[in-house]
Task: structure prediction
Amino acid sequence: MDEGTTRKIMDIVVKPRDVIPEEGRTLPAAYYVDPRYFDREMDRLFGRMWVAAGRTEAVEKPGQFFLRELLGERVIITRSTGGVRAYYNVCRHRGTQLCTEASGTFPGSIQCPYHAWTYDLDGRLVGAPHMDEVPHFRKEDYPLQPVAAEVWDGHIFISLNPVPPALQTQLAGLPGKFAPWRMGDLRLGHRITYDVKANWKLIVQNYNECLHCPNVHPALNRLSHYLSGENEPLQGTYMGGRMDLRPGVDTLSMNGTCPRAFLPGLTPEDRRRVYYYAIFPNMLLSLHPDYMLVHTLWPVAPDRTINICEWHFHPEEMAREGFDPQDAVEFWDTTNRQDWHVCELSQAGISSRGYRPGPYSNREDLLYAFDRMIRNIHSGEHP
Amino acid sequence: MDEGTTRKIMDIVVKPRDVIPEEGRTLPAAYYVDPRYFDREMDRLFGRMWVAAGRTEAVEKPGQFFLRELLGERVIITRSTGGVRAYYNVCRHRGTQLCTEASGTFPGSIQCPYHAWTYDLDGRLVGAPHMDEVPHFRKEDYPLQPVAAEVWDGHIFISLNPVPPALQTQLAGLPGKFAPWRMGDLRLGHRITYDVKANWKLIVQNYNECLHCPNVHPALNRLSHYLSGENEPLQGTYMGGRMDLRPGVDTLSMNGTCPRAFLPGLTPEDRRRVYYYAIFPNMLLSLHPDYMLVHTLWPVAPDRTINICEWHFHPEEMAREGFDPQDAVEFWDTTNRQDWHVCELSQAGISSRGYRPGPYSNREDLLYAFDRMIRNIHSGEHP
Amino acid sequence: MDEGTTRKIMDIVVKPRDVIPEEGRTLPAAYYVDPRYFDREMDRLFGRMWVAAGRTEAVEKPGQFFLRELLGERVIITRSTGGVRAYYNVCRHRGTQLCTEASGTFPGSIQCPYHAWTYDLDGRLVGAPHMDEVPHFRKEDYPLQPVAAEVWDGHIFISLNPVPPALQTQLAGLPGKFAPWRMGDLRLGHRITYDVKANWKLIVQNYNECLHCPNVHPALNRLSHYLSGENEPLQGTYMGGRMDLRPGVDTLSMNGTCPRAFLPGLTPEDRRRVYYYAIFPNMLLSLHPDYMLVHTLWPVAPDRTINICEWHFHPEEMAREGFDPQDAVEFWDTTNRQDWHVCELSQAGISSRGYRPGPYSNREDLLYAFDRMIRNIHSGEHP
Result:
């Protein structure tokens, strides 16, 4: 982006950013390639924090379930009459995996395919053939191993932490901040799962700066200027900011027009903005005037991350004759693929012995803050 | 299997089993997933014991050979005029693998494809071009490296143990017990090789209890009731038992009828039974009234086992016009696939951090005994 | 090869070789299978020596480039007005890989696809958007990380050694010895890339003895007798020798005739010979009367080597109507595949616990010398 182009867009208010300090450099390579760093991040972030795992609409009725793979676990997420429940996918008899379908509906109970041990939807063992011959055996000693599950405005979070803090603590001020979007009302319009050959942190970092937008995303940059908007300082458990739509642009879609009504409850200001929040460790929440985009990240190796991207719309719009999410889906699918490509190039380059930590610009302030948080995760342990 | 169904089959004599003790639980996960446990089992069981490797009919004439992969070795099994022989598949000159065909016939000698060193069928080096120019070289110093080979009633066993005990010691009472089946007379009717994504012990354990049969094998359970029969206490090197055919059932086949004559030499009692013996470490021997089923297990990783399954019949039956083994093959192929599926589910579940050793029922007595033997293999070394 | 056949070819002068000493045996298996040995060889040989990487004709004009993968690095090899240049493929900003095309032409500069940092062909950073807002930032601190590059008679060599000795030191007497072939004039006629499942040293060893030729290469042996020629004693950085064409044979081609003029500048003697030189660590240079064959080896694992084979001819011949390299290409492609097959068999056999270092014949003198050099690389570190 040369100076000339910058000057041409006088309608954009470009706020200066704080000057990055001299030590503001990218992380050493080990953070992205060394399995010991990866394992620590999996243990301390993905294994202890609340992880965004899906939407309540997928388990609206008791017995509906889906699986999510976290730290190698294929966690069962379902609903009993008491609410959303999550379990390790393991029979208490001989350890058999109970469920292999990606989603479906349990017939009121969960039965092991091997010896027919049977659990109710609250995880209680209710059937165990021939175990009544064993005098010391008590069914109540063998419930399904629970995984913690809580809900925020339609988003299901799970935690492998046996004693997790309240989800509310992790979300801090976000529920209040994003209440006007009424996310709980929205419904899934489209889902694409990407397999990205890059460390999960590179995807988070890519998400949190738009300095690359003129070069990588010309279409996005035409709808929303890369220097527009403002960042919120990094909080303990999330970071983000907003960008402004250019004049005449209604939303992020293939041609910038919006064939849908705006979400009810938004202020006129918020109808001109897109909010981008990375909620650690795995959720990228992008709120548009008329839809919600949610990425969830599922790291599988230091250099590989499964990325599930979902587009959610207002149910009234979805019910309307001729509803078509394609303008928003195609726009972000294109943008996503451009992003994953440069993330993969970064992963490849950082793995080189020619890599040295490089200098951040003032426009990469959130990345520098994120890196400091990541350094804390590993503090005192190198490698 | 509910109580009602159990009561209906009054023709079955259900013997009570000893009560399993309170500490009778499945093994910790490391035994199934940790490569160090796998390596110890490969070294101490598969690397030292006699391993069932095939049948003498495959090497009936001198020079006939086949390869078997054991602990990463592609062992050559052949016959010289002196008997069955086995060798490491390695030239003594520069280490070249001598033989890559899965089976075939050597033309009287074994020649290295690289520099044409040549060995007779007893492993003696008989040709080594240009080595006569080297004064200190003596052909007799470079025979093929032998692998021990012995035969029991048509079954070839090999051992990588440089000084193995007699095969007879390992087999203990089995040759006497199974003499009436005249296994040496039987001939291969069909072979299927399965690639099972499970630890070899899960396959052995699956083989040694029928508590899963009502749930997993409804067809088998219709022919032979899962509570019928009796187990022999675990011996040092094998374990097994028998199950009874239901009235009106002649053998284990698709419809329970037997289109073949019973094996000669069987008592009327044995014509009503199927014997299931796991001969450690790798042979599962299933003797039916009219055929012999042999599984041999070839572990390749903690979570992967190659399983070769063979159906053997009496040669007089095989010579008969219209002989067709399909009723027995299809029955066991179906049953096998059901078993490998639950073994794979167990492997997946045991790998979970949600796995905890679970309680055995009285009907899983052989598994508990087997586990204690396996614990001894690893005793004093954790992990 | 029996005595009778040897006597028949009286036209061949077979020189006796020195007697190999009794300790002249192949290397222990760890040298070929243990990743620690592989890593040391990569570090000390491929990471420090000059490595043959391609030909100057591929980067004739400034901006032309190609990539070569060495030790996991995808090195950029290009040309500025100042000469051949090589760089790590890594942006100094956030470590992004700059270039993914296997070859092409830079438009005067090298631009990072992520944030558009831009370097000139001499590696200087000339563009870094928004970094001018950062007061402590200086462009001259962030040039591309260089890889050393030098040229010998058309062959480009690169070195990851930050302070490499002169290429001339490594080549020792070779530039003088092979000056008559005027290799810098020759041009690429054909290239085949092989993926060989064998340790790189097995390929070097295979290249340096023809004792296997009667058995493995009957066509080659018909054109050039396997006992002909003479070896030069191993030098510090290369080894090789020559073989003689049989009477009536003009070059190594499918039928032994030569449809091309001999290379200008060769003596009548050299027109009757083929020279085979292994220039450590990765170049196999085979000079024929009318063409040059170059193999470069790119180890990727203890048991896997990428092998790039190129046929180079005189440009006047290539310009001639009806020029067709197929007779030479097909001859060596066939011979190559025979060689890789036995190299792969050796890799498989050496991995066996049945492998023991075996005795060398007098005809394997260069291999024994090579092995001693390799032992020195690892001296004092086992494993």
In short: The longest strand of chain B covers residues 187-196.
